[in-house]
Protein: Iron reductase domain protein
Amino acid sequence: AIAFYDSETGFTFSEYKVAYSLSANVVYRIAVPSTASSSSAFDIVVQVVAPNAVGWSGLAWGGNMVKNPLTVGWANGNSPIVSSRWATGHTLPTAYTGASYTKFTTGNRVNGTHWTLTAKCTGCSAFAGSNGNVVLNPKGSNRLAFAYSASKPTSPGSNSSSFPIHDVHNYWSHDFSQGENADFDNLVKKNG
Structure:
């Protein structure tokens, strides 16, 4: 992961790019409060930038599909949709109330080439996973996973829509410390 400053929202993100094709990436960005510690839950701002050819994209906060919060996003007309999901097995993830999302008034768009989703997640940094209680490390690396598909959800206007199985999935170690923000709370307020 590398540090990326987003001039629109004012957040510094820790950024990781996944090749979607030879000429396009899906970009995953994570911002955390500089005061956060791995001893308790903390809010996270997540930003996903994906080519319009990506029907949906998912981010697994526990490094695999099963038993951790899943952030799933897709484009719907001129606006991105965020869906909070949880999977107990390798089947369609169901709605998850343990993580909630607040989409910003900035950093959310669909244009001629890409869609961008930017939201604050409460409940993504701590959860009861496959191996007990997990709290992510805001000062270091965490194993994350991604998945995406070229096929779109069946009802793209609904964040509870079903969607087809992923075409590609993989995992990586993401250094959250690259996305520390001293003014995290003020930036959340500023971005609505």
